[in-house]
């Protein structure tokens, strides 16, 4: 089981490393189709945050750290940890934010410390050649990681199984929002929100503890 997970993470790292090499530090470099949709995703993920107080946040699958730019424009009192399995992504992020003392980055598949919040944007989309069952197992394991590394709550997004059939791609994973909503309600918290009304072929789930 451990070898299978290691192989999976290696494949994911290679996939995104190639994207970064092709497109640089842009939304395309982390496999999004544009800046507007990327910012819209960030806006919905960050609804998990209570903006009144200073907070810490783990960004699992941080890429080159684009979420940190978004956070800096909205909040002044935060500490940020970016986590990614791709070494080139972390290298790019460290260079990009070398003058930001409250931002740190590590190469890993999970946070090395507990934060107030944890978020994951886009990490469940590209399944490559894995089956639905294999990918769902990985997704559930990663949700456990998000839960364990968060004090106040966590948020994540997925492509939706309600996508138009003619636009769906074999190498992408389209999750059933109802199944994941039920999982989060029964496993993590009574306070769960499903956001599926913002014009993209995806949904966001917020889990408040």
Instruction: Figure out the total of helices.
Output: 6
State which percent range the strand residues make up.
Answer: 15-25%
Computed structural class: alpha/beta
CATH fold description: Rossmann fold
Report, as a whole number of angstroms, the end-to-end distance. 30 Å
- Helical content stands at 25-40%
- The H-and-E topology, N to C, reads as HHEHEHEEHEEHEE
CATH architectural type: 3-Layer(aba) Sandwich
Mean pLDDT: 88
Instruction: Please tell me how large the radius of gyration is.
Output: 16 Å
List the domain count as a whole number: 1
Q: Are there runs of 5+ residues with pLDDT below 50, and where?
A: none
Which sheet architecture does the biggest sheet show?
8 strands, mixed
**Overall spatial form:** globular
CATH homologous superfamily title: Vaccinia Virus protein VP39
Quick one: how many beta strands? 8
Task: Set down the secondary structure blueprint.
Elements: H1 2-23, H2 35-45, E1 55-60, H3 66-74, E2 78-84, H4 87-96, E3 103-107, E4 115-120, H5 132-148, E5 150-160, E6 174-175, H6 177-187, E7 191-195, E8 202-208
Parallel strand pairs: 1-2, 1-4, 2-3, 4-5, 5-6
Antiparallel strand pairs: 5-8, 7-8
What does this structure look like?
- The chain has 209 residues and is of the alpha/beta class.
- It is built from six helices and eight strands; from the N terminus they run ααβαβαββαββαββ.
- α5 (132-148) links the parallel β4 (115-120) and β5 (150-160).
- Strands 1, 2, 3, 4, 5, 6, 7 and 8 form an eight-stranded mixed beta sheet that branches.
- It has helices at 2-23, 35-45, 66-74, 87-96, 132-148, 177-187, and strands spanning 55-60, 78-84, 103-107, 115-120, 150-160, 174-175, 191-195, 202-208.
- The longest helix is centred in the N-terminal third of the chain and has 22 residues, at 2-23.
- The radius of gyration is 16 Å and the shape is globular.
- The model has no long low-confidence stretch (mean pLDDT 88).
- Keywords: Methyltransferase, Transferase.
């Amino acid at each position: 089981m451990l070898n299978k997970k290691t192989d999976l993470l290696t494949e994911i790292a290679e996939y995104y490393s190639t994207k970064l090499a092709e497109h640089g530090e842009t939304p395309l470099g982390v496999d999004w189709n544009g800046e507007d949709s990327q910012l819209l995703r960030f806006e919905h993920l960050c609804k998990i945050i209570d903006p009144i107080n200073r907070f810490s946040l783990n960004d699992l699958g941080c890429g080159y750290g684009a979420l940190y730019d978004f956070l800096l424009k909205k909040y002044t009192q935060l500490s940020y940890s970016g986590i990614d399995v791709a070494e080139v992504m972390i290298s790019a992020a460290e260079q990009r934010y070398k003058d930001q003392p409250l931002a740190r980055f590590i190469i890993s598949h999970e946070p090395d410390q507990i934060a107030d919040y944890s978020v994951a944007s886009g990490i469940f989309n590209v399944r490559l050649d894995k089956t639905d069952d294999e990918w769902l197992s990985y997704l559930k394991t990663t949700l456990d990681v998000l839960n364990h590394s968060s004090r106040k709550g966590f948020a994540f997004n997925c492509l939706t199984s309600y996508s138009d059939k003619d636009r769906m791609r074999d190498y992408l994973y389209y999750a059933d929002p109802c199944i994941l909503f039920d999982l989060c309600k029964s496993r993590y918290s009574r306070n769960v929100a499903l956001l599926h009304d913002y014009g993209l072929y995806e949904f966001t789930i917020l889990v408040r503890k």
